[in-house]
Structures are given as C-alpha cells and as structure tokens.
Amino acid sequence: MSKVQNPLTIEIDRHEASPIYLQIGERFKAAIAAGHLKPGDRVPALRGLATQLNTARGTVEMAYNMLVDEGYLQMRGAAGTFVSSSLPGAVTTPAARKTRERANAPRLKRPEPAADIGNDVKPLRPGLPALDAFPRKVWSRLVSARAKSGDLATLTYPEPSGYRPLRERIATYLGLSRGVECVPEQVFVTNGYRASLELILRSLAKPEDRAWFEEPGYLLARAFLADANMRLVPVPVDHEGLDVDAGIAHCHDARFAFVTPSHQSPLGVTLSLARRMKLLDWASRAGSWIVEDDYDSEFRYVGRPLPALKSLDRDDRVIYCGTFSKVLFPGLRLSYVVAPERAAARFGQLTKNMNAGSPHLYQAAVADFIAQGHFARHLKRMRALYAERRMLLANAIRKAFGDRVSIDLPTGGMHLVAIFHAGRDGPIDDMAMAARAREAGLAVIALSAWYLNARAKHALRGIVAGFANVADADEAAGLSRTLRRAYDAQSMTASSDAKSA
Ligand SMILES: Cc1ncc(COP(=O)(O)O)c(C=O)c1O
C-alpha cells in the first residue's frame, strides 16, 4: 500500500472569497495535475489535515467528499483515502496541468443546464396547477368587466411597483394567511420568480457575492443566479430542510441564503423550527439576507400550513417571495416580493429603472378575484382536489414500479418525488430515463437535475412529477405505465452497456 507521499503542503487563504472547502479541493486537483500526487497515493487523514490547516474536520471532510464525488479520490474504509487509481489522462497530463493552474483561481462550478421542458402542457409537468379546474368563466367575467369599464388605469402606463389595490390585497392576504406583517409599500409586483430575484439582486447584491443555495434546489433559480454571477455555495438538505450548520461551516459570511422553507423544492421537506431559528440567527449575526421562496405553501394536506419564515423575522433580514403561478395559473406571469422595511425605498427606486411594470388589466382582475372571495374558494377546492390527485399518482407509480422506487406521499405542493433504488448495475441514469419519458410524451424532470452537479455521488436519482393535472385513476395508471416503460428501456440499455464494457 502506498504511503502518504511527501507530506502535502496545502495552503489556504482566509482572505480569498472562495469557501475553504473549495480551496482545499482546488489545491488537491492542482497537486494531482502537477504530478505531486499520483494515482494510488494516500492523502492525509481528515483530522491531521484539519489540524495542519487550523480548520474544522467537517470542512476537510466536505472537500474530500466533493473530490470523491468528482472522481479524484477514493475512500477505502479503514485503509484511508487515496488518489483514484483510474484517473483519466486528461486530468494528469501537462495540458491538463495548465488548465488546472488557470482553474486554480477558485471558481465555483457552473450548474447543469436546466432541463428544457419549454412551455408545453404535457402530462406530469412539475409545478403546473390544475388547468382543467381553474374557474375560467369567473375569470373571464372579471377581466372583461375591467376591460369594458373604461378605467384609464388599465390603459395607461402601469405603475412599475405594481397596481396599488393589488399590493394592498397581497399585504392583507399575507398577514392573514402567512403571518407576514408588511405594508403595501413593501410589496412589489413582478413578472415571475426570476424577475423577483432580479429586483432583489439589483437592490442588494454586489458582483460575485456568495450565496447559500439548497442542494438539491430549484433548478431555474440556480441557473438564473449563476448567470447573474452569484457565487453559489451548495448547502445540503436533509429531513429537516437546509442544513444550516453545514452552510455556516462552508461559508459563514455568505451574503444571501436562497431557501424554500415551507416545501423544499424539490424534496418537499419543511424547514424545522429549530433550523428556522438558527438560519435567522445566522443572518442577523452575519448581516446577510434570506430569500424565502414561498411558491406553493397554500397547498398543504397534513395539518395547517406553517406560517412563513418571514413571520419569525425580528431583524428584518428576510425577503419574502410569492407567486400567483400556482394558486391561479402561470401564464398570468404575476408574482411579488416583500422587501425588508429598511430596503423598501431602494426596491421602489429600482423598479422605476428596471422594468415597465405588468399590465394593470390583469392585476386589477386578480385584485377583484381576491376581493370577491373567488381566491379563497378556489384555494379550498384545489386543496381537496390535489390531495386526491397526489394519491392517485403515488399509488399508480408504486403499482407500476413495485420496490424499484420509494415515494413519500407529499404533505404539500403539487409534485411528488419518486426515488429510484439502485439495481444490480448501480443507480439508473435518471437524466437518460427522463429524456426517454419526455420522448414518450411526459414532462417529468430527473431528480439529479436539481443538483449543482447531477453526476455527484450524493445526488439522488429519481423523477419529479407534477400530479395536479392527473384527472383520474385510469389516467394515473396509463402515465405510470409509460414511465415504467421508459425506466425499463433505460435499465436494459445500461445493463447491455455494462456487459459489453
Ligand atoms: C421552487 C419554485 N419557486 C418559484 C416558482 C415560481 O416561479 P414563477 O413565479 O416564475 O412562475 C416555482 C414554479 O415552478 C418553483 O417551482
């Protein structure tokens, strides 16, 4: 067995913007590329390196896990951790060295491109509310009444911060339903969650700020933030939601944390009260901002909806984001942000510079929809309908897949996650399987696509499927059989590839 070669001297720079575990990872990759560490070499023990670097053991462990996931290191139980014996030449050749040296200026990994499921309405699309159950007649009556009214407010340039009566309705609704205390001046109407993020970043972010992002987390937001040059620090999610201690260990001074506390996207867990308090405490001490994405909390099937994280925010550190995409329909393109009190004026100023607002006609119709009680009635009906539809789909997938998958019946939201169990040939490639399902006419998304690195070992494999539009048991059974065929076709390809390798 090879020994630890010339005790590796790794140096970290505490003034560098990159988190320490990433710096450690990059130093190892550079040492491998430069030939200082060779395939089969044993690397220092966790505790030893942590002492040498005067950092926490957990930080070194995080770096090692990342290197294992990426294939640079192998853990061999009690024998220790080694440089992979099967490193491709591309990693260790001189050409790779140059690339590595350049790459040695720590950069955070770019996320996987978001799965492109376009704007079609194929079955099982996650995040799409029941389009068959939207009260279209009521809606068209309200829109047409507004259009006919001759109200000049619906014809002139819209107010960039949002139509005042809708901002008032939203503030009242949030106070009553989500425990969020705010005034209409803090509410800004936007054209979707990414537009909300843009307003937040323009108001509060500096170039290359670092941000905690849930791992796995909402893929469209991840891609948007990475594109906006936000340096994303993946923070694991477990059964209690975001692992705040891990976030602090990896990057204690991140400027933002982007979270889905009510119903984690995509795993569906709820951030526990203890973690909520810890997260708020961290943000207060670090002077950081928490962006709460409360996208589908209105739909909860077990117990009462939990109040928003913002309702516990005593230090004005939480920026609350909501949307009408789930509770009404996404084609409306109306969502909103509640700015922190101390930043509301800045948000208001920025909306004037950055967008031309959303049509008042639709904002006014939404305000009427809420004021006349249709909103509360629609939500009540949808809660009952979705509770039923989630059972239909969960049961049908369980029946079609048997013990190949596990599904926890979601306690809220409009999608479920089916996790694939590893078979004889290891875990199935869920990206390839989801692509097959899409070819067969379904709009499911691979679970691993929600991770920063879909190929990472810690990435769970499975599918994320929306249940809101599954009309009945027959449809659920048919869709599940189509899914199963895609799964079988992918398993067969994988096992014949394994045999011929
Ligand atoms: C996690 C998450 N956040 C926010 C949204 C809302 O996005 P938008 O308001 O742009 O429709 C969605 C929609 O699917 C989502 O899944």
From TrEMBL:
Cited PROSITE patterns: HTH_GNTR
Any one GO MF term held by the record is: pyridoxal phosphate binding
> In the UniProt record, does the keyword Calcium occur?
no
Disordered: annotated span: 92-121
Domain of life where this protein originates: Bacteria
Q: Per the database record, which ranges form the HTH gntR-type domain?
A: 18-86
Keyword terms, alphabetized = DNA-binding, Pyridoxal phosphate, Transcription, Transcription regulation
Checking InterPro entries in the record gives: Aminotransferase_I/II_large (IPR004839), HTH_trans_reg/aminotransferase (IPR051446), PyrdxlP-dep_Trfase (IPR015424), PyrdxlP-dep_Trfase_major (IPR015421), Tscrpt_reg_HTH_GntR (IPR000524), WH-like_DNA-bd_sf (IPR036388), WH_DNA-bd_sf (IPR036390)
Q: Where is the composition biased (Basic and acidic residues)?
A: 101-113
Family statement drawn from the similarity comment of this UniProt entry: In the C-terminal section; belongs to the class-I pyridoxal-phosphate-dependent aminotransferase family.
PANTHER family (UniProt xref): HTH-TYPE TRANSCRIPTIONAL REGULATORY PROTEIN GABR
Which protein is depicted?
GntR family transcriptional regulator
Organism, as annotated: Caballeronia catudaia
Q: What is the taxonomic lineage of the source species?
A: Bacteria, Pseudomonadati, Pseudomonadota, Betaproteobacteria, Burkholderiales
